[in-house]
Amino acid sequence: MHGMLLLAILLGAWCMDASGTVTELYTAPQEFSEPKFILRQQDGRTVVEGLCVDIMHAIERTDPHIRFVLGPPPQSLARIEASLVAGELHVACGFLRTGKREHALHYIEPPLFSTDFYMAVRADDDVAVRNWEDVRRLGEDAVILAKYACAPALSSVEGLKTDFSAKDTKTNIQKLLAGRGRFFFHRSPGIEAAIRDAGAQGKVKILPVVMSRQPLYMVLSKAVPAHAATRIQTAIIRLEANGELAKLFAKWRADD
User: Which domain, by its residues, includes 149?
Assistant: First the structure.
């Protein structure tokens, strides 16, 4: 559907919301983002589940006036971000905070959850790092492989050698095993499943140090009216207060 036509339909839906009907907000599953979004085949069709799907359902239960429309197919983070800026999508789940995004999008406080970032190395690598300074001391040998989605978690750390060219975790782990980088940087939950899905168990190990801890947020297009943003924020505050967000995060952490 063309952007202008979609926008006209949605504006009509938002106007009806003022009279008490449901506000539909369009979103898309982010590819290669497990456990935020996980795609499974069931009875010949693709089913999307995951932490963000559970969070959106919890918001809908908390406020029946909000409905998230999760449209196929899965999209890259860059595509989702551009669609939010253009108003073609209205909401996205689990975004790291950056200055550029803050200027273009509306962040909902409080964060949905915080995630820890770890580094993995080849199983026969005896390297030990306690902090980023230890990584910098390794010089040219310390290339860090990561997805573009994880780049904001490293943006404040100077002097690192990074490679964000691979779009999925499996490719990054293959590059690690081939010696095209010394470290694989990824979040938890997610890093253990990535190693398992790449068939690299026993070949790759996770270093025990949390290298970064980052909050992840629900973000809205600035085209979303204030009343809808307020409803979503109110629902998230309630879910945080009653412990539901923590329960959902613990559920998907356990599945890593």
Answer: 115-213
Which pairs from 149-156 meet CB under 8 Å and 24+ separation? 149/30, 149/32, 149/33, 149/77, 149/96, 150/117, 150/185, 150/186, 150/187, 152/96, 152/97, 152/98, 152/214, 153/96, 153/117, 153/185, 153/187, 153/212, 153/214, 154/185, 154/212, 155/98
Residue 121's domain is classified under what CATH number? 3.40.190.10
- Tell me the per-residue pLDDT of 141-173, one tens digit each, with 9 for 90 and over: 899 999 999 999 998 899 999 999 998 999 999
Asked if 167 and 222 sit in the same domain, the reply is: no
For tokens 């690192």, name the residue. 160
Least confident window among 11-15, 203-207, 210-214, 221-225: 11-15
Shared domain check, 241 and 182: no
pLDDT class of 54 with cuts at 50, 70, 90: very high
My answer on whether 158 and 245 are in the same domain is: no
In this structure, the answer to whether residues 223 and 108 fall within a common structural domain is yes
CB 117 within 8 A of CB 189: no
Contact 247, 117 (CB under 8 A): no
Looking at the structure, do residues 46 and 86 belong to the same domain, yes or no?
Answer: yes
